[in-house]
Structures are given as C-alpha cells and as structure tokens.
Amino acid sequence: MEEMDHNEKINFSFWKNFLIYAKPYKKYFLFLALVMIGVAIIDAIFPLMNKKAIDSFIVNKTTVGLNSFAIKYGILVLIQAINVWFFIAIAGKIEVKMAYSIRKIGFEKLQVLPLSYYDNKAVGWLMARMTSDINRLSETISWGLVDFVWGITMMLSITVVMFSLNMKLALITLSVIPPLAIISVYFQEKILMAYRKVRKINSRITGAFNEDISGAKTTKTLVREEKNLSEFTELTSEMKDSSIRAVCISSLYLPIVLLLGSIGTALALNFGGKAVILKAISYGTLVAFINYTIQFFEPVRELAAIFAELQSAQASAERVFSLINEDLEIEDTIEVINQYGDFFNPKIENWPEIKGEVEFKNISFSYKDDEKILEDFNLHVSPGETIALVGETGSGKSTIVNLLCRFYEPNSGKILIDSVDYRKRPQVWLHENLGYVLQSPHLFSGTIMDNIRYGNLEASELDIIRASKLVNAHDFIIKLENGYDTEVGEGGSLLSTGQKQLISFARAVLRDPKIFVLDEATSSIDTETEKIIQDTIQKVLKGRTSFIIAHRLSTISNADKILVIKKGKIIESGNHSELLSKKGYYYRLYTNQFIEEKSNIVIDG
Amino acid sequence: MRELKSIFNFMKGSKFIYFLSILSIILATFFTVVGPLLIKTTIDSIIGNKPIDSEQLAKLINFLGGKVFLKNNIWIIGIVLIILTILRGMFLYLKNTLSSKSAENTAKSIREELYDHIQKLPYEYHVKADTGELIQRCSSDVETIRRFLAVQFVEVGGSLFNLIFVAYIMFNLHVKMALVSMAVVPIIFVFAFIFFSKVQKIFLEVDEAEGRLSTVLQENLTGIRVVKAFARQSYEIEKFDKKNSQYRDLTFKLIKLLAWYWSISDFICMMQIGAVLAMGSLWAAKGQLSLGTLVAFITYESMLLWPVRQMGRILTDMGKAIVSIGRIEEVLEEPIEILEENHEKPQIIGNISFRNVYFGYEDKESVLKGISFDVKAGETIAILGPTGSGKSSLVHLLPRLYDYDSGSIKIDGIELKSIDKKWIRKNVGLVLQEPFLFAKTIRDNIKISNPRLNDKKVFEAAEAASIHNDISSFDKGYDTLVGERGVSLSGGQKQRMAIARTIIVESPIVVFDDSLSAVDTETDIAIREALNERRSKSTTFIISHRISTVQDADLILVLDNGKIVQEGTHETLIKEDGVYKRVYNIQSSFEDNIEEVNI
Q1: Beta carbon pairs, A and B, within 8 Å
Q2: Residue B11 CB neighbour total at 10 angstroms
Q3: Which residues form the ABC transmembrane type-1 domain (chain B) (predicted)?
Q4: ipTM greater than 0.90
Q5: CATH topology for A332-433+547-605?
Q6: A550 pLDDT exceeds 90?
Q7: Of A173, A174, A598, B18, which is least packed with CB atoms within 10 Å of its CB?
Q8: Torsions phi, psi of B430, nearest 5?
C-alpha cells in the first residue's frame, strides 16, 4: 500500500484535537517550556558576559571584580548544565510516555475492531502505524516543543538585548533575519521532501533484496540473473541520484545561511566599528553584536525545521488517529453491556449457559464489495450435532462460519443461539463458549504449555496434559527435549505444521466449549497424524455443536449432516452415505479425493 | 583491519572524488578559521591602534588600502569577510556533495555486488539460507557503511583538520592562552568516547525491547482471529502492555543517561569557555593579550569543542561500521556458481541418458544410487515414488542446480557437466512445486524469461496453463500486480502461473516437479491436454502421485530410496507386481466401485 502524502498544509484544527492526548502531560509540558525559556535566556546572556569582561576588565585594564565575575559565570554555567539535564530528561519522559499511551490506546482498539477491518489491511501496514508513526508523532511533539520554545525565546531575548544595547545597530544587523527566515522555511521543506523520497526508494531496494533472496531458486531456473541485476541497477542508480540530490539541497542551505550570517557580521563590524571609533558604543558592545549575528541563525533554522517536521508528523498522526477513531461496526449494545459486561469486565455471573442450538434465519450477507455471498440462507442445528460444510473456495462456507462466530454480522436476518438473537448477548459470551481450530494454526511465542493454556487461562498443568492426551499431542510433546516447556518460536516457527495443528487442537479442547469450529483444520497434517486425529475429532466433538470445514472428505464423513454449498446455497445435504448415493457434487469430489489419498498412501508406504 | 581493506576495494572506483572531497574539507576548514583572525585584526589594529602582528595579514591590509584608509572604510573588511564566507560556503558545499557522491557510489557498488552475488550463490545455499538475516545484512548493514562513508568519515576528517588548524593558530597567537584553551580537549574526548562505548549496551537493549514489542504486535495481528475466537482481548492487552512499558522504561533509561552526558559535557565545555574568558581578561588587563586576540580565542574555542564532542560519538559508531563490513564480507566470501565456465553451448534437442548416476547432498548419504535410463527427444518420462526417494533430486540435476557425484548424464551425447550452467538452464524449463512469482504484473511474470514476447504468446501460454480465466476475472486483468502490493494468488494459481511462464519459452526439456499438487483434478486434466497439444518437441519430465497424470508417459520410473525399482510403460507396469500396480489397483477397484454404484 502506498503511503499517502496528504500533508500539504499544517492543519491546525487537527492539532487542536490532538491536544486531548497531550493533556495528561500538561504539567510536564509547562515545566519543559519553563526550562527551555531558561536555557534560551542563558544562551543569550553569555555574549553579554563577554561584553562585560571586555568593557570592565580589558578596556579599563583592571582585574578588580574579576573573581566575582568568574564566580557568576560559573554559577550561570552550572544552572545551564542543570537546565540541559532537565530538558533532555523531561522531553524524553514526555516522548516515551506519550508513545506508550497512544500505542496502548491503539492496541486496545485493534483488539476490538471487527475482522472486516483486517480484511484489506496488510499486517505490515498496521505495524508501521503502531511503531514508526507513533514514534515519529511523540518524538516531534516533545522535541519539537523543546526547539520551538528555545527558538522563540532565544530570538526574542537576542532582539531585546540588541535593542537595549543599541537601537540603530540592532535594526541594521537584524535586517538579515527576514530573508533568513524565508529561505529557511523554503529549504527545510525541500530538504524534508527530498529525504522522504530517498526513504521511499530505499524501501523499494529492501523489497528488491527480499525478492532477490526469496526468489533466488526461481531466478536460477529461469536464468534471469542478468535481467534481475539490470533492473536492480536501475533502482540503485535512482537511489544514488536522489540521495545526491537530497544532499545537494541540504548542503546548499548551510552556505546560504552562513552567507546571510556573515552579511550580518559585516554590517555589525562596519557600523559597530565606526561607532566604536566615534566612542558611541563600547568595544564590548561591538563584540557582543558580532557574537549575536553568529548565534542568530540557529534558532531560525530550528524553527523552520520544526515547521517542516510538523507537516510530516501530521501525516503520521492522521494515520494513527484514523485507526484509533475507526468505527466498531460490531458492537454490543449498552443494555447488553450493562447486563452481561464486555470484553474487559465480563459479568460472568449473569451469563446464561449455552446449550448449543444454532439457527440461521433468512440470512443475507455480503462483504464490502457488494457481491452477495449468502442470500436468504436458512439452517437449523440441534445441540450436539456435527455439521460439515463442503464446497469450492468462495462458495460461502467460510462466511457461514464467520457469521456463526460473529466475526461478521449478517446484513439481514437473524442468527439465533438457543433461540435468542446473538446480538442480544455480548460477543465475549459467545467466544468464551467457542472452540476454534484454524487451517493454518497460529501459535504465540512462548512455551507449548503457554500456548495450550491460551484456551483456558485458569487450567492446571494436569488439565493441559489431559487435553494434550485427548488430541494425541502428548506423545510428541514429551519426546521434545524440554517437553511442555519447549519454546515454540515466533509464530510457532520451531514446530512442524502438524505439531502446531495438534497444539491448536489441545488449546481448543481445553476450553471445553459448547460450540466447536474446525476451519479446514486437518489439511496440513500428514496422513498418519490425520488418522490419529480422526479418532480425536470424534471424541472431541461428542456432545458439542460443531461445524467442520475441510478439503479432506475423510475428515467429515462421520458428520451428522454434510452440507454442500455452492454460491451461497445448500445444493446437497445429508449424511455421507446418503450423499454418495445421490451421486452428485459430493460424490464426484469424494471419488477424486479418494483416489488421490489412497495412491499417496500406497506410494509413501 | 581486513575490513578496512575490503571497504577500500569498494571505494576504488571513486578514488578521485574522495581525494577532491578531502581537499574540499581542508579548504573549507581553512576559510572557516581565517574569519576570526580578520575580525581580530580589525578590532585590534583598524578600530584600535595596535600594530599588525601577522605578516600575511599586514600584506592583506596594505593591499586593501592600508590601516588608515580602512579605518574610514570598515565596510571593505565586511566585504572581505563575506567573500571569505562565500569561499567557505562553496567548499562546504563541495565537501558535502562530493563526499555524498563518493559514498553513494560506493554504496551503489556494494548493493549491486551483494545483489548479484546472492543470486549467483548455489542453489543449496538458498535452500538453507536465513532470509530475514540476509535481508538485514543487505539493508541495514549497507546503510551503516554508507553513513560511515558519507557522514562519519567526512566529519572525522573535518574535525581533525579543524583541530590542527585551530591549534596552530592558537599557539601562534598566544602560547599560554592556547594551553588554557586546549586543556579540556583530551578530557572531553575521552569522556565522550568512554560514555558512548558504555552506552552501546543500552542502545542494544532498547533495540531488543523494541523487537520484542513488535513481535508481540505482529503475532497478535496475524493471529487476530485466534484472539477473537478465544476472547483473549484482555490477556493480549496485558501482554502487550508489559512489552510496551518495558520499552518505554528502557528508552527513558537511555535518554536519562544521555541527559547526564550532555549536561556534564556542556558543563565542562562552558567552564572551559569561562576559563578562557577569565584568564584572557586577566592577561589582557595586564597588557599581555590584546582584545582582538581574546575575541578570536573565544570564537575558536566554540569551533574546537563541538567537533571534539562529536568525535567520541562518531568513533564508537565507526565500530558498528567495521562489524557491518565484516558481515557483508561474509556473504561475499561465499563461493558463487560459475554460470559460464567452458563456454560450451551445444544445440540441445532433448535426448537424455543417465548412466549409473550417484548424487548426495554435501557429505551426506547418497540420495541417488546408480540411476540409469535413456530418453529420446520429445518423449515423456514420469517419475513416482515416496517422499525422499530422490525424485526431486533427480530432476534438479538436469538444469545443473546440483551436480552429480559420479556416473554420467549425457544430453544429446554431450556430458552434462561440460555444458555451461547458463546455457543448460535456458534449455531446461523447470516448474518448482512452490514457485516464486515476482512483484510485477501478471503479464510480466508470464513473459519473465523473455520480455520481448508479444501478448498473443502470453495469452496462449496462460490458456494452456488454465490460468487465463482466473486472470480475466481480476479487475486489471493481465496488468494486475502480483505480491504484497497486488493480489495474493492461491497455491494452485501460483503453480499454474509458473507453468505458463515455463511453457511460453518452448524449451527442449521441460520438468514438472510435482507442480500440479495444488491444482484440482479437473484442472489438472485440462492442463495436461493443453500441454499434449503443444508438447510436440519437448522432452518432458513429470513428477506426480496421480496415476492418471503419469499413465500416458513413454517411460515411467518408480523410485525408492534412490534407486529405480520399476520402469516401463503403464501397460507393462500394471502387469508387474509392485507399487505401481498396487496404486493402479486402488484406482481401478475404486472405479469398479463407482461402476457398481452406477448400476
């Protein structure tokens, strides 16, 4: 997904809304501003100290008072050092605290957003919102304030000091400030844009490396090495050119600023020098003016930089807040929450027990693109029944399960659980009673024990072992070096798919759910494990209402009812033998697979 | 310092630019340090009445019209000052652009060399490679080196010349004052160096904490279905909060340390300037030092301290660059395949003979043990056998992804090993089981081997591979982007794309390495029929478990444990006892059953 650069102008009303998130740190912000005012004033005072030294000691050729001058200077330095400590620490504190809490709010939001939100968003895209965007936002806010207050105070102080030293000289030397400011704003924006382009190309280069590495085997078989390299060379050349262009722009800025500064110095030297000769001002004042002309460009540069950075932070902030302010779509009503609680404060004592009767009543449903997946779909499932759904990809079988789990809600019609519309119950009530096993089993970093316990956080070790035994996972687990304490790796990467699948079975079983969903759960298990799982499934599903989606028909041949779904409609239904004798779609599917599976078994011995 | 040597190798191409950029650094520094001298002379000798103590400056003043003239026309000094600044600015500009140009050149050649090297590493390297780690080396390690060359190298150079020039001028102006001014330079340098080396560890910890935070985030987002189905929102939030606050606390710890560093070093530096001011005033009051000299010293002092403080930091960063160079070297030292060694490019028709071929991965047990068979051009060879029997290894030998250990493979009578890899691969179309598609449009992916092919060819190939209808159903049709930024194709669609891009080039030898496994039976049949029509000239290898797929082959090989246990045609094999017959029986008995049911 392309990053949008909709940050042409600084949007003040947007930042006003942002203030809500900055409010908890009001005290810190105030203190930080005070410290920065202190820093800037002292920075502006130092040239005055030079002036004082020149005028009192050097011109008068006396050392009277030099000691007390030195002590004063030392105290000023000490205060400044303390200031420096405070502003870094406080700005840092604001930065990390704000990042922490916005990230927290964002994460909490992500947990309750409906699955439809995730449909058209890549994980990487969401990750970038939650990491780099939030970092940039909080960084710009905290350190931006530092630079802003410092820059403004510094400019004001210098101006005040200069005017109080000598009005005319101040006016003359300060005349370089307006062009300096204009040029600074212009350049800072250009610089930022140039570097943003570099970063974009850089990410394309990383993408190219990714392709180079993961596609290397294919490259070899296609003998594409030379073409790949020449395409890559185009990218690196583009990278080189845009990097150099960015450097050219940014290194043009400094000489121009220096030039304007030196014009200021020259003006000070010329007019100040004449004034010294005429004894209109002191030597010290001249030197102070020269110092100030050198010092002045720093705050101007900082302010211009903040201006540019704020624009880019605004783009980040807009992306972050669009996530935080996203509509929930699937939401429990106030009445439901009052009676049964929500995800975070469930009132379990008020929950009715689930028996497991499920009914789809006149359900119509479409995902965002308005093509209807289900239309006037009806289905009744008695408690404890096993329903298998068969059909091609896109037939609607996954949608039925998605609706049952309330990951999506129907556009029209009702889904009744124990004869009550499930929208009259909280989502958490249904989910706490749900056992769910996915086609590609997803595990979390941690031990096997942790992962199984995910199904029931209160479960004892004994419960966990019992669940593992039930799904035949126990044997392979204890054969591992660390048994149940074996780390599964990121996303379970240290285990085979079959092993992950068994663990995800154990995890679901541990919940002792009333409704069980197997979403193509056995497709990634080898034949032998599948045989084992076969018995397990029978045991596990006993007494629970269950929905099975599977490619492998052997998995579902024992279901009470098999539904063949085509284009959102049930075209065949019945048990295995009934459907076989119909010799329709199911029969064809079954025979094809039967041949394939049996052949595999014979060949693999 | 082997690392430095290898970085110099990469820099070779831009030697002259590097030289120019160093020259610019010297000149920029020179013009920077001259300015304060001019101001000093103006204060002391033009506005004031002191004699000019430097010969060169005296010459310059005389050239500009002499002291008295200038006293009435100080603006001339101002103009000179501006000219000096313009010169300084010019060389600063040159320094930055030249050093960036040279650094970018170097980074470009490192990137290209890495890219090319990686794609030419042998097949087995890629089978085992840790993709994430390798990408990290190509992106962040190269970036570290680029920064080192573009920024750090130049800054260290600049600081060094700055130090030399300023020290030289200071000692010439006033030895005792120079000694006072330089007093803290070594202290602050050592302090910065020690601080930043110590703090590296915390930088690392912060990085790791951030890594753990993103892992939790990523696992949560990829597993959001599981989180929801198990109603584990609170649990996940708690887990995330732990990592989030750990990251926050560690970052703050780092920032606090930096606060100490900057406040202490600021204190030292400002005290140093104070000391210069106090001692200068003392000596000036006693007449041992002129006002202008003191002003010059104060200006020089601030020019001196900042770079010294930065240097400590840069030097520790340079340590990282050395590590990065080492990591990149490691990749570049892996031996690559030589694609054209004997320049043997025989015309390939497709007669193949295997004679007692043995092959094993690295030092492990052989996976092929004495394979022999003959195929005539245009014939179809089907291979079946259990997982690990050596089927894939056998066909991987044909395009020389691996080389056999002993025995002989002859293509049209020429020993395979003597044919250039590049040439043989162009003549063997291999469809992998898990094909990789490039992040390009579907059209470009299909004609990836030959971008000049026209659309008609592309459509034909897509139709033969039964993927044309799928493509047409996409909004942008053949212009649909594949991969992360475009559509994600199913396993079966990817396999069919791979078939299309392979058959479009009409190689004399084509290999399907179980490449229809994710395609359903009906599509499988359709593809095979389409291929049969096209496949008049190609020698074809098919690996499959489906009897229906292999039964029309001219030669069927049944492999087990690296050996051919059965060979023949479908007709002869179903009369022999063995795996083939058993598989066939299952199928036919089932077909009997179907017929029974039909009756």
Answers
A1: 417
A2: 19
A3: 19-320
A4: no
A5: Rossmann fold (3.40.50)
A6: no
A7: A598
A8: -115, 125
pTM: 0.81
CB atoms B590 and A595 under 8 Å = yes
Sign of the CA dihedral running B22, B27, B31, B34: positive
Average pLDDT over residues A2-24: 68
Architecture of domain A12-324: Up-down Bundle (1.20)
Does B448 sit within 8 Å of A224, measured CB to CB? Answer: yes
Quick check: A71 contacting B, CB < 8 Å?
Answer: no
A250 touches chain B (CB under 8 A): yes
pLDDT digits (tens, 9 = 90+) for B328-343: 888 899 898 887 777 7
Calculate the average pLDDT of chain A.
Answer: 86
Partners of residue B485 in chain A, C-beta under 8 Å: 1
Q: Which residue of B has its CA nearest to A277?
A: B47
CA dist., res. B485 & res. B476, Å (int)? 13
A213:B287 CB<8 A: no
Pairwise CA distance, residues A152 & A160, whole Å: 12
- Using 50 as the pLDDT threshold, list the residues of chain B that sit under it: 592, 594-599
CB atoms within 10 A of CB A421: 12
The stretch A250-259 carries a mean pLDDT of 88
Are A66 and B278 within 8 A, CB to CB? Answer: yes
The CA distance from B373 to the nearest CA of chain A, in Å, is 21
Task: For residue B320, give both structure tokens.
Answer: 């990282």
CA–CA distance from A400 to each of A358, A442, A575 (Å)?
12, 21, 19
Strand-pair category, B539-543 with B509-513: parallel
Within-domain flag for B163: no
Which among B217, B451, B586 is the nearest to A130, CB-wise?
Answer: B217
Q: Give the CATH number for residue B576.
A: 3.40.50.300
Most confident of A315-329, A336-350, B173-187: B173-187
**HSE-up of residue B417 (Cα within 13 Å, Cβ side):** 10
Interface of A with B in 372-431 (CB under 8 A): 393, 405, 407, 427-428, 431
d(CA B64, CA B350) in angstroms, rounded, equals: 89
